[in-house]
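Hello Y.,

Per our agreement to keep a running log of every chain we model this quarter, I'm adding this entry. I've kept the format consistent with earlier entries: sequence first, then predicted structure.
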Amino acid sequence: MSSVVFGHLVLGLGLGTVFLLALTFIDYRLWRPYAPYLFTLAALVTAAVFIPHVGAAHGGGRRWIILFNISFQPSEALKIGAILAAAAYFSAFKNKVSTLSYGLGGLFGILAVPAAILLLQPDIGTLSVICFSVGAIFFAAGGSWRDIVMVIIIGILGIGLLALTKPYVRDRVETFFNPSQGQQDQSYQIKQSLIAIGSGGFTGRGFGQGIQKFTYLPEPMGDSIFAVAGEELGFIGASILVILFLAFALRGYTVAARAPDMFGALLGVGICTYLVVEAFVNIAAMLGVAPLTGIPLTFISQGGSAMLASLASAGLLLSISRSGTAKAE
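Predicted structure for the entry above:
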């Protein structure tokens, strides 16, 4: 328990708040020339999970690095690195985004490295967030509808291929379409999540009074925390949480639209998409309307690495907002 508290409060909230404040007051444009190097560094650190005695495996995936008895998930940094690289690339080639080589070629070129590393770990949830975020940047930069349709088709075929070749992906897809199977294994988490949310009723059992988080609900402080909120805060509390994320999305994309340059606009789109997609994919999975992915609930789930990355990203978004406000004045 002490390691969980240290990771979440000290590394996540503590160091994350420091990054949030620092990045808010650092001009986001200073990061543009360093974007390729930051992306490469994040990819190398993420790949370091395969180094013996450095990387650690848990729950069927090799996604963590342990240094000085402190574990962290480097793929969280890869999300920010990929978004920075995509924003820098597509803003530099904004007049060529509609071409096949610079547009679709650039998109797949950026996604190739994260895809190779994260498929080997495996970490499909993180890869999907990166794909959505970089794809949103490509769309906002002016990617042609021809290329966007091709990306969607390739994405669907990719999911199908993963379901055929990766047993755990196939199990999650089958569980999504047939939740009655595997009641004690594949379907157990979604079953317990729906019980928790349903038992909360309209007003909930009361804060801290939930029952499912004790023994029944897997990862109650992590992936399943929305189910805990649904049980304790009820339909009202869960709806307020969803509304807050919708408001965050609206504000985030407004900040991106008002950015003083294209790099800031694309960076804002990527960051907002990353934070919002994580939240709504998590919520959808807990409600049974999307397959389970292991993606945390943004700003809420326990996890030092995820909290640190989310707060740092929010700092970049606030920096874009400050620049946009200064330009308007």
